[in-house]
Amino acid sequence: MKSHEEGNTLDKRNYRVAMLFAGEPTTGATLKLEETRLAHIARALRDVGLDVEPAIYADAVADEIREQLLRVDGVLVWVDPVRKDGNRAMLDPLLRDVASRGVFVSAHPDLILKMGTKEVLYRTREMGWGTDTRLYRSFEQFRTELPMCLGEGQPRVLKQYRGNGGIGVWKVEAVDPRESLIRRVRVRHAQRGSVESMETIDELFARCARYFEDDGRIIDQAYQPRLVDGIVRCYQVRDRVAGFGEQLVNALYPVPSGAAPADAAQPGPRLYYPPTRPDFQKLKHRLESEWLPERCRILAIDPADLPVIWDADFMYGPKTAAGEDSYVLCEINISSVYPFPDEALVPLAEETLRRLRAGAR
């Protein structure tokens, strides 16, 4: 057992933290965090006494990054699962190895697989934030069961297992759900700039086949008509809400009656608010006191291991009998949460320091 004096010495240690993000590795020698989009996060980390350095990731320099991360006490990661220059197929094993050697990693790749993929929508579908959600584990199952689902007459939202920025998210509905065999569908991609189109269901199948590669799958969630009212994003530091985001126009916003597909509204700016916003307090309370503990139990996650920064997107569900809002989980983001409200900066920095101290004891 450490003495009181030893504990005080440990608490005064200068911990080193790497901020890892994707970029051009040739800039590594000259890049200053103050010149990047993460500058204010680096400042907050330094304000609590942490030594902070950039780690610019690309697959070509994975070995060099691994050696750098082994020299620090912790690494905070901002790398999307799907990028123009690749994915995290090389990065995730690297981070697992670094974490196994005692470096604090947030978010750990294994934690991302538990709570940061679209499958969390299926696994928590019976919770208060859930809705009619289905899981297609194979392409054959997808081809067999999706037409039957569309035959029920309601639009669905298909989501690939891992993705970001609306990539691989499709609103789909049957042109004529009364057909005994669904032949044509209306589809719209959630990626910015997409428009609604009609195609055969076989064309949809061909488009989605790649989502089943490398143990991929598709999650099928009921479309929420109140999507026109916007999405609420809850920014979390570990198990506490540290701020909110609100986006009033979504990529799957329906085309106005009589308008051409190209006239559909496109996503607007996301607005940011502190955790004290009055009309979101009921959502905050349910998330912190009810939904997060239940989700951690279902997914076998220790709340103490939750990421230092992550977020949960909520759509508005049907109004309750009392006329109050209900909420439906849209997705959870862990891999690269940025930007977020300024109110989350101090909690993020303090949580990072706390985790480093806890790991050192």
Sheet with most strands: strand arrangement:
7-12-8-9-10-11
What oligomeric state is this?
A: single chain
Distance between the termini: 10 Å
Q: Quickly give the structural class.
A: alpha+beta
Residue ranges: pLDDT <50 for 5 or more in a row? 1-10
Using the CA coordinates, give the radius of gyration: 22 Å
Percentage of residues in helical conformation: 25-40%
The shape, in one word, is globular
Count every beta strand, where a strand is a DSSP E run of 2 or more residues: 17
What share of residues are in beta strands? 15-25%
Q: What's the number of helices?
A: 10
Mean pLDDT: 90
Order of helices and strands: HEHEHEEEHEHHEHEEEEHEEEEHEEH
Q: Quick one: biggest sheet?
A: 6 strands, antiparallel
